[in-house]
Amino acid sequence: MPDATPLLELRGITKRFPGVLANDAVDFDVAVGEVHALLGENGAGKSTLMKVLYGLYRPDEGEVRLHGAPSGIATPAHAIEAGVAMIHQHFMLVPTLTVAENVALGLSSNGLLLDTSEVAERILELSTRYGLHVDPSAYVWQLAVGERQRVEIIKALYRDCRLLILDEPTAVLTPIEVDELFVTLRTMATDGVGLIFISHKLDEVLALADRITVMRDGRVTGETAPSATSRVRPSGSANWPRRNSSDHGVGWTRASSARTASTSPSPMGRSVTSEAVLRGATTVITPHRPGSPS
C-alpha cells in the first residue's frame, strides 16, 4: 500500500509585515509526484508563502513539514539540503559563467569549482531525460530567457530536488516554450518530484495541475481539481486548454446564472477569475473577448 504521507505540509502559516498580513493561517500540501497549482492575483500572498517554505522568510506562526516531520528549514541552504528548490521570477545565474559553472556553483565544500567536464556530462543526461536542451559550455549571457530557465531547472535536478517551486514560470516564455515547459514538468512529476506551480493564468493552471488552491488577500479561499470543473471550448480549439496561435487575445471567464465574479487581466491577454475553479460542476468556462460584456 503506497505511503499516504504528503511530501509537503504547510500548517497554519502566518506571515506579517508592517501594516500587512501577507499570509493568514494558510494550510497547503503537496503529494509525491503531484503538480499543485497556487492560483491568485498579484498580492494574494502566493510568493510570500513559498518564500516561507524556501527559508527566505521566517513564519510568525505555523509549521513546515516534509515527509511528515518538521522540516527545520531556516535558510535557502537548509531547503536545498532537504531537497527543496525554487525557481524565482528573476533567475539566480551568473552571466559571465558557463552553464556548467553555474550548475556547479555551491556544490563543493572546499569552495572550489567541481570538474566541469563531469558536470557537463550530467547536464547532458538531464537535458536528454527532461527535454531541457542547453549547451553546458555556453555562457549564460549568450542564452535566451527560455534557455536560462532551463538552466535553473537543471540546477534543481542536479541537486536531486524532490520538491520544486516555480514562481510565475511562464511569464517570460513564448507559447511554444510554455508547451515545452509543461512536458518537462509532467516528466518530473512522473519521476516523483512534487511541483508547486504559482500562477495567475487560469488556462495554464487547468492544463497542467492535478490540484488547484486559490489564494486571495493572504488566505486560502478554496481548492479543487481541474477534473471537477466544467469548461466550454472555443470553436476551432480542439486541444484546449493548450495554448495555440488561433486563440491569442481570447480570455476565459465564468458564465453562470449567478452574478459573474470580478476578473483581472493577465499579461497574456487572458482574463483570470480565481473563483471560477471553485464552483465544481456548476462552473462553465466560456470564451470572452476583451471589451465584451462579462
State the gist of this model.
With 294 residues, this protein is α/β, with parallel strands linked by helices. It has helices at 46-53, 76-81, 99-104, 116-130, 145-158, 175-190, 202-208, and strands at 8-17, 20-30, 35-39, 61-66, 69-70, 84-87, 163-167, 194-199, 211-216, 219-224, 230-231, 251-254, 264-265, 271-272, 284-288.
Mind sketching the topology for me?
Layout: E1 8-17, E2 20-30, E3 35-39, H1 46-53, E4 61-66, E5 69-70, H2 76-81, E6 84-87, H3 99-104, H4 116-130, H5 145-158, E7 163-167, H6 175-190, E8 194-199, H7 202-208, E9 211-216, E10 219-224, E11 230-231, E12 251-254, E13 264-265, E14 271-272, E15 284-288
Parallel strand pairs: 3-8, 3-9, 6-7, 7-8, 11-15
Antiparallel strand pairs: 1-2, 1-4, 4-5, 9-10, 12-15, 13-14
Plain-language structure description:
The protein has 294 residues and is α/β, with parallel strands linked by helices. Helices cover 24% and strands 26% of the residues. Among the domains are: 95-159, no CATH class; 228-288, no CATH class. The chain has helices spanning 46-53, 76-81, 99-104, 116-130, 145-158, 175-190, 202-208, and strands spanning 8-17, 20-30, 35-39, 61-66, 69-70, 84-87, 163-167, 194-199, 211-216, 219-224, 230-231, 251-254, 264-265, 271-272, 284-288. A hairpin with a 2-residue loop joins β9 (211-216) and β10. The strands form 4 sheets. It has a 6-stranded mixed β-sheet, with helices on both faces. It has a 4-stranded antiparallel β-sheet with strand order 2-1-4-5, covered by helices on one side. The protein is built from 7 helices and 15 strands. The longest helix is centred in the middle third of the chain and has 16 residues, at 175-190.
